[in-house]
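quick q for whoever's on today - can somebody do inverse folding on this one?? i tried earlier but teh output was garbage lol. tokens:
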């Protein structure tokens, strides 16, 4: 039987670099840090080869962007009661927030045209 509480929960399907997946249920108030700790503490069977030494290096990627530890699922406006896919990777630090945007700006200013006479 589905309860109202179940409908408020977010189903996350986490994908490892190896392609292995596992579904987890979280509250919209759970943060990326909460999720990383929960997954670390409840490491799925079948993921043994990917086991990491600390929850602090687990990072979530959603729609191509690393999520900072304090970001909640609710802040991402994920649809409750539906499955959302995120990647889970082991990485010591997050990339600089503006590094990707800076690279894009640099590319825009480059010109690779030629003049035909």
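ok took a stab at it. sequence:
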């Amino acid at each position: 039987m589905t309860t109202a509480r179940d409908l408020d929960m977010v189903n996350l399907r986490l994908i490892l670099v190896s392609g292995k997946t596992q579904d987890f249920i979280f509250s919209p108030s759970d943060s990326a840090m909460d999720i990383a700790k929960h997954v670390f503490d409840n490491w799925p069977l079948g993921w043994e080869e990917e086991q990491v030494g600390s929850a602090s290096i687990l990072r979530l990627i959603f729609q191509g962007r690393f999520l900072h530890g304090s970001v909640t699922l609710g802040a991402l406006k994920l649809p409750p009661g539906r499955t959302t896919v995120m990647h889970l990777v082991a990485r010591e630090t997050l990339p600089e927030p503006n590094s990707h945007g800076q690279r894009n700006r640099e590319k825009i200013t480059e010109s690779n045209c030629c003049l035909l006479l």
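fwiw The chain has three helices and five strands. also Residues 10-90 form a domain with the Ubiquitin-like (UB roll) fold (CATH 3.10.20.90). so keep that in mind when u check it
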